[in-house]
Amino acid sequence: MGLLAGCGTAGQADADALPAFASMGEAYAAVDGVLGCDAAPAGKPITPADGGALTSEQKLCSENVQIDLYLDEDALQEALEIWTGSNQGEVHLARGRNWMVVDVTGVATGEPTTWDIEGLAEKLNGKYSVTGA
Q1: Are 108 and 98 spatial neighbours (Cβ–Cβ below 8 Å)?
Q2: What average pLDDT does this structure show over 52-67?
Q3: Mean pLDDT value of segment 100-128
């Protein structure tokens, strides 16, 4: 019976187990520690091609990789839906409870990404997905 109870709450436990960051500085340090962000990335914050508004604090890791920090899970979920529905091409996403790393290298350059966003998600105990593929 204990095993069944554990299975019944697995979805909530998984959501609660996703990591959160207290600040953009903390999120950036974690991502930089795994990916090795560019020292001074060129460009402006990345937004979906359809013009969907993101309600996050944003910081570039590279010209085509960005860290987004959200106030709460609802705001992150809304942004995830915007990215998923943008139909702009292949976008790699790593996410936790209140953060997301967005890699639009393929969309921006037409070339496959060299950033290991899936590995980033694994190392930060987050979730990985690809939209627009």
Answers
A1: no
A2: 87
A3: 95
- Residue pair 95/121 in contact by the 8 Å Cβ criterion: yes
* Distance (Å, whole) CA 20 – CA 34: 16
**% helix, strand, coil for the chain, step of 5:** 40, 20, 40
Which value, to the nearest 10 degrees, does the dihedral of the CA atoms of residues 121, 56, 131, 91 take? -80
Residues 99, 80: Cα–Cα separation, whole Å = 10
Alpha helices in the chain (DSSP H): 2-8, 10-17, 24-35, 73-85, 105-109, 117-123
Structure tokens at 49: 């091609």
Element (H, E) at 67: strand 65-70
